[in-house]
Amino acid sequence: MFKKIKNKIYKFRGVAAGFLLATVCFVSIQASRTDSYFEVSKNLDIFNNVLKELSTFYVDPIEPGKLIKTGIDEMLQTLDPYTNYITESDIEEYEFQTTGRYGGIGANMRKAEDKVFVGDIHEGSPADRAGLHPGDEVITIAGKEVGGKEIDEISVLLKGSPGTQVVMKVKDVYTGNTEEKTIIRSEIELSSVPYSSLLGANKDIAYVKLTQFTPHCSRLVKAQLDSLKKAQPNLDGVVLDLRGNPGGLLDEAVSICNLFIEKGQLVVSTKGRVKEWEHDFKTTSQPWDTKIPVTVLINGGSASASEIVAGTLQDLDRAVVVGERSFGKGLVQTTRNLGYNARLKLTTAKYYTPSGRCIQTLDYANRNEDGSAGTVPDSLRKEYKTLAGRKVLGSGGVEPDVKVIDTPPGKLAITLYVKGYFFDYATIYAKKNKTIPAAGQFAIDNNTYSEFVNWVEKKDYTYKSETEIRLDSLKSAAVREKYYADIETQYKDLAAKLKRDKKQDLEKHRREITQILESEIVSRYYYMRGRAEHSLKDDLQMDKALTLLEKPTDYQALLRKPAN
Fold it and tell me: Pick from 189, 215, 245: which residue ends a domain?
């Protein structure tokens, strides 16, 4: 009897202790929330008082809106680069970035010194129909002189509601005549699928380039695949090119995956601090094809939704990923209305592919002492398994199954591009040549390259090579540590040897300079789709993707779990 009573006492003590612990936890949570609310309220009050004092007593008049935006922007910089304050004046640009649509004339502008010129023109746009050409000098827009203005200011003058008109005075690059052009603005929608084609030795590989995950882009991709399949019913594979694609809508990433995997398959999960942001996103439609071999091309510019597609198809062993490690953005943003037509785009969750990995590279919550965001070393990246048991890694982007490194442009090519010399010479070339071969076949000959070299040699394109930059760093360190006097002679000898002959450099880097120049020339005749088509020439990553699809045994071997 005594034992039973003692047990009851122990049970009562346990229940009481549990109740007490729960009460303490609840009170602690409530206290924590109260403290948090108090901190917010207190600091908002202080912020408001600071603004009132400045507005009343500061020596010069202040702009409250500008001051507050600066404060908000600085506050958000302590979080992550994807959490942004969007003012009413920025809404149109934000909408363009997320939808690919805007009201305007369909041409961008470029500056050279204090003059403004027409840059790329979108095919079939109002600017195209009005007869504007890349290289035309813009003198006035809506009666306002544009010389010396910044591109952002010019963009404001050009954009407007569809159906409204804008009058531009331009000097035609080909005739030299100056005339006024009245252009009716329209809604400009840049296609997220600028190019698709049948490739491979037998023209039986469907290629689709996707530049951004905008609304309904999955329909565009499917429409292109349907069109290519109609032209070639016996397709042997698909290449989905996501290189340089910064991402976009998560729903569209799910829909793109749905083209190649069954209905009801988990594609991605999101997890956040607030329960409402936790979701499992599954495919909802019948697929386009679940058997056809697929390769996905990625590089360091492939981010967010691009990584969801590449990572998911990799996790499910549905595609072979080719190229270079992706950017590593595993964060999800949501837009919240703030009133007065302002918005806050903020990070609300992280996303996880079917294997459970998050590919986020930078840790913004736990920064280094210098304020920079830390990364997880490759040796410490957590391992996950694909459906077939292949090893994949989290925290650091999507690693391709087949790595093919694309050599980035050198200092010389970048300098010529920034100076606008490729653009200017393409204009000269287009003056002389009314037509060129198809974009995929176009190539400049030796005479044309020699003409370009002779032309550009008269321009200023001074630059420092990577070796020279490092040599300068060596000199600075040597001076600082008082070693320079001992190595001065050798340093000067090495510096002299590194002084480049410009013409020699133009020949040494001929291949990459030729590729960029050809692309610029092609755009004069075939617009952006021509650039996309021409970019596939001498494309090592594309060549590897095609080779894999043309060798089914090699392709399948990459999707199997390797033997121990």
Answer: 189
Query: Does 173 lie in the same domain as 231?
Result: no
Q: Residue 380 carries which DSSP code?
A: G
The residue type found at 157 is L
Which residue's entry shows tokens 């290289």?
135
The per-residue pLDDT for 350 is: 95
Does residue 511 form part of some domain?
yes
Per-residue pLDDT for 489 more than 70?
yes
Mean pLDDT of 462-488: 86
Query: What pLDDT, on the 0 to 100 scale, is given for residue 43?
Result: 86
Q: Is 486 part of a structural domain of the chain? A: no
In a domain, 22, yes or no: no
Q: The domain containing residue 70 runs over which residues?
A: 47-78
Three-class SS state of 207: strand
**Mean pLDDT throughout 383-394?**
96
The lowest-confidence range among 97-101, 108-112, 120-124, 127-131 is 97-101
Our measurement of the distance from residue 87's CA atom to the centroid of its chain's CA atoms, rounded to an integer in Å, reads 22
| Integer angstrom CA distances of residue 472 from 113, 490, 505 | 29, 13, 20
Residues 6+ away with beta carbon under 8 Å from 554: 547, 548
- Token pair in block for residue 535: 């970019």
For residue range 265-313, list pLDDT tens digits in order: 999 999 998 888 889 999 999 999 999 999 999 999 999 999 999 999 9
**Catalytic amino acids?**
304, 315, 329
